[in-house]
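user: can you give me the structure for this one chain? tokens are fine.
assistant: on it. calling the predictor now.
[tool input]
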Amino acid sequence: MLKVENVTKYYGTNKAVDNLNFEVKDGEIFGLLGINGAGKTTTFRMITGLLDKTEGNITFDGKKIDYNVTDKIGFLTEERSLLTKLTVIEQAKLYGGLKGLTETEINERLDYLLERLEIPEYKTRKIKELSKGNQQKIQFIMAILNKPKLLILDEPFSGLDPINIELFKSLIMELKKDGTSIIFSSHRMDHVEYFCDALVILVKGRTVLEGYLKEIKEGFRKKNIIIEGSVNESELKKIKGVLKVEENKGVFTVSIENNNVVSSVFDYIKNKKDITKFVVEEPTLNEIFIEKVGESYEK
């Protein structure tokens, strides 16, 4: 288990991370979210030991993270960190050697991951000869070559098409099943919703929202009603508790204050004969993110 306790980081007089607290259990995927400059990268670097924290404690399985622990950590950075003049196997031997793997272990693990990502023929190719998407695959392989107990994924799907995203998803869920603690960061809230059990949203280094995703969505005041059919948008907007109505190709998204408004909207449409859909939806994480970040910047 990873524990981040009361962690603060200053760059000079600038407070980049402000009293951050969270934990990631074994086999849990945790979301660390925020817009650019929120403090995510600084936090990743403190967790991996690349930066010293100013205050607080970071431990993994009860131990301070140092060179005795880093062999158990994998880190997929948002920026490319490959040595592009090397071949894939040369890069793997370099990285795997630093993580304490034998040459046999490196070859076996690399062959397995290349097959899983459907690029076995690239083992002896130079990295600079690969497409952006395939370089991202190699970067991901390097991050999980050592079967990490703690894995940090920062924008892991950069440059990938939908088919390859599914290949990545399969491997990430396999690691989760095997007990790896995973920190996941992405600006794509649909990906965060798919993976993450719990999350923290940072604004200027401060936590503005934290908790388990299911509980966050249940406690968020807004909900949406999806209506498909012929309704009058202006009449919907007049219903007390309706916050917003948006229409796209005959499908209406009605944002409401709380569950009490559902019956009022249903009363309006129940006698209309051409309604083909009426579904009450929880708010999306994207909506929650925009509201919480926006509120913080307005303070």
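assistant: here you go. The two ends are 34 Å apart (CA to CA). Residues 83 and 284 are 39 Å apart (CA to CA).
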